[in-house]
Amino acid sequence: MKKVFKAIQVSANVWWVGATDWNVRNFHGYLTDRGSTYNAFLIIDDKVTLVDTVKAPFADEMLARIASVIEPEKIDYIISNHAEPDHSSALPAVAAAVKPEKIFTSVAGAKTLTAYYGDLGYTAVKTGDSVDLGKGKCAFVDTKMLHWPDSMVTYYDRDKILFSQDAFGMHLAGSFLWADMYNKSILEAEVRKYFANILNLYSEKVIALLDSLPGLGLDISIIAPDHGPLWRQEHNWIIDLYRNCAEQSPRAKALVVYSTMWNSTKYCAESFADGVRSKGVEVELADLNSNDRSNIATKAATAGILACGAPTMNNQVFPAMADTLNYLKGLRFKNKLAFAFGSCGWSGEGAKQIAACFDEMKLEQPLPLKQVKYMPSESDLQEFFDAGAALAEQLLEKIK
Ligand code: FEO
Question: Considering the entire predicted model, what is its pTM?
Fold first, then answer.
């Protein structure tokens, strides 16, 4: 049985031939509450060209969409903008079916694709290179470490499309091709989550790339990322949102993250949060029992205060907090006032390890860590309230 799927026209000579993953909810640890798409694009020019592929289980879907426009065997070129398997693991099956004349990828991409799939005959390209498709051409721009060493983008001049791979994308499955057909608040939430979890650690490179865009002289009509909807208008909206995310400017907001065993740390967290709120600063309390690390990262991205509290267990910080801190450390958040706290019975490594992690993250800790034994007293909780209020005042002073 051949699957039946149709391509969707993007522009005069380009078709969307990707796949919609409606039910993916865990993308290597990133909770994708709204599913995702793996976008791939078919350029119908004298040289028929496929830009990116999809995740391997969706190869049949992509080939069926291609077949609704043109016999897949007529594809001459494949361009791989990004070697991560969500965009490349269908490549061996597609290359076997299509037998392309050339597969273009970056220099690092050729190495990475070879490591994953063997030598399928890659042609390495770099910034300044282009390939003539007949009536139009594809120009390549390296975007190394945004977010893999192999990452590059491709500009098709005939239809003025920037195929931007992961950049300007989001995990959002939906019925519509275009971003302007979705609710803006949903787009912003998904972009912020995507940036926080995928790109935050490369914020400086993102800013450098955005700064360099005008100098590339690309007349862009459509931005076509590899995940989520495409941008045919309001390009500045998504570009400005990316810049805003990358700048990591702190907001008047505190995120209080905690783990708890017998509620002691929870009571401390609640009093600290109430102290923050008493100064008119927005606060969000997140128990790691009900918040996964990718959602914590999203919330942390815009918070001016990051407070983390946990008990000590087996002479270590509570495991859920260790996991979350390890993840946040990797994402290299900055510009936050941090506060470490917790509860313990005797040895008390928990809050100390949180504070040490904040040091590694190079986050300022204006207040000393605070830890209670067994159960906080009323005066302990008053001190947590006061700490929250004090840190909130410092934040307001910092961002005014
Ligand atoms: Fe969507 Fe970095 O892969």
Answer: 0.96
CA–CA distance, 83 with 108 (Å, rounded to integer): 9
Q: Which residues are catalytic?
A: 28, 82, 84, 86, 147, 166, 194, 227
Tokens of 287: 């128990």
Q: Residues 34, 253, 321, CA angle at the centre, nearest 5°?
A: 65
Q: What is the pLDDT of residues 14-73, one digit of tens each?
A: 999 999 999 999 999 999 999 999 999 999 999 999 999 999 999 999 999 999 999 999
Nearest protein Cα to ligand 1, atom 2:
84
The 10s digit of each residue's pLDDT in 200-209 is 999 999 999 9
Is residue 336 classed as helix, strand or coil in its secondary structure?
coil
Q: Which of helix, strand or coil describes residue 52?
A: coil
Tell how far the Cα of 166 is from the centroid of ligand 1, in angstroms: 5
* 152 within 8 A of 109, measured Cβ to Cβ: yes
Degrees (nearest 5) of the Cα angle 155, 160, 165? 40
Cβ pair 389, 357 in contact under 8 A: no
Q: Is 311 exposed, middle or buried (0-12, 13-18, 19+ CB in 10 A)?
A: buried
**Interval 127-135 mean pLDDT:** 97
pLDDT beyond 90 at 211: yes
Closest Cα to atom 1 of ligand 1: 166
Which of helix, strand or coil describes residue 53? coil
> Dihedrals φ, ψ of 317, to 5°?
-65, 145
- Please work out whether the CB of residue 52 comes within 6 Å of at least one atom of ligand 1: no
